[in-house]
Automatic annotation (TrEMBL):
Lineage of source species: Bacteria, Bacillati, Actinomycetota, Actinomycetes, Kitasatosporales
Protein name (Swiss-Prot/TrEMBL): Phenylacetate-CoA oxygenase subunit PaaC
NCBIfam families, A to Z: PA_CoA_Oxy3
Any Pfam family: PaaA_PaaC
Cross-referenced InterPro entries: Aromatic_CoA_ox/epox, PaaA_PaaC, PaaC
Gene: paaC
Chain coiled-coil ranges: none
Length: 275
């Protein structure tokens, strides 16, 4: 299967092919959307889902930002930065919705900058160090496939705000998955060295994939996406041997604390600062 065939197949149903960063568009995804939590919806449960998804996005965006000045080519540096901005935009909207839903009125900064690592609910795969380019590509392929499958379902959520955020995010996540798939095939079916690194990256990512499948019931869609790409790349399917614990329960690796210290340092040092 060629790179183009993988790209075209994964792109089915996402012909819009949006490639701009989430925060740079002129369209407000929440324009005209009633922000009142509808009757019958568990507001605390809604807030929890928004925080989980926002934490995944924020931590992933911070890791992607580490590729700035380090990516193999300038074009890839820009692409990874824009993917990170997409995720950062999703995190901002989701944090804001969480503050509305839980009744605290907390804004996005309160969630992002003034919680400790144990309070974060992101999956652990997002917080692992970047490693080499192959590792980041394998992680991006897995996380974007998983997040896209979940956002496609959330686009019909009874909460209109979460549904609008998800519908907007689907367009970006489809591109994230396509970008990762193209590189996965290129590296897996490339040189002996690139193939070796992709195999090693798969082994490093595999223990953390099981956690994703316990979070949301999208296993079939995600496995189908990964199998399609790995087959085209001449790579084996990852063997899922999940590690105990879950980031959803506040159980994280030792890598999250230092990452958040870097992310939150300025805000905590100058909590009252404004632009």
């Amino acid at each position: 299967m060629s790179d183009d065939h993988v790209y075209m197949t994964l792109a089915e149903g996402h012909e819009d092919d949006t490639r701009w960063a989430y925060g740079t568009g002129f369209e407000d995804p929440l324009h005209g959307v009633d922000t009142t939590v509808p009757e019958g919806i568990d507001a605390a449960g809604l807030a929890a889902v928004c925080v989980e998804l926002a934490d995944d996005a924020l931590v992933s965006a911070q890791r992607l930002a580490e590729w700035i000045t380090r990516a193999p080519e300038l074009e890839e540096e820009v692409a990874l930065a824009n993917i990170g901005l997409d995720l950062l935009g999703q995190a901002r909207l989701l944090y804001s919705r969480a503050g509305q839903a839980d009744g605290t009125g907390r804004d996005e900064d309160a969630y992002a900058y003034f919680r400790d690592a144990a309070d974060f609910r992101n999956v652990r795969l997002a917080e692992l160090p970047c490693g080499d380019f192959a590792f980041s590509i394998v992680r991006l392929l897995v996380l974007s496939s998983w997040r896209l499958a979940h956002f496609e379902r959330l686009a019909s959520h009874p909460d209109p705000v979460l549904a609008a955020i998800a519908a907007k995010g689907v367009k970006e996540l489809a591109y994230h998955r396509q970008y990762a798939a193209e590189w996965a095939v290129r590296l897996g079916d490339g040189t002996e060295e690139s193939h070796r690194r992709m195999r090693r990256a798969q082994e490093q990512v595999a223990p953390y994939i099981g956690e994703l499948f316990t979070a949301y019931d999208v296993r079939d869609e995600v496995v189908a996406d990964i199998r399609q790409v790995t087959t085209a790349a001449g790579l084996p399917m990852p063997v899922y041997r999940p590690l105990p614990g879950s980031g959803r329960d506040g159980e994280h690796t030792d890598h999250l604390g230092p990452l958040l210290a870097e992310l939150q340092g300025v805000a905590r040092a100058h909590p009252e600062a404004t632009w």
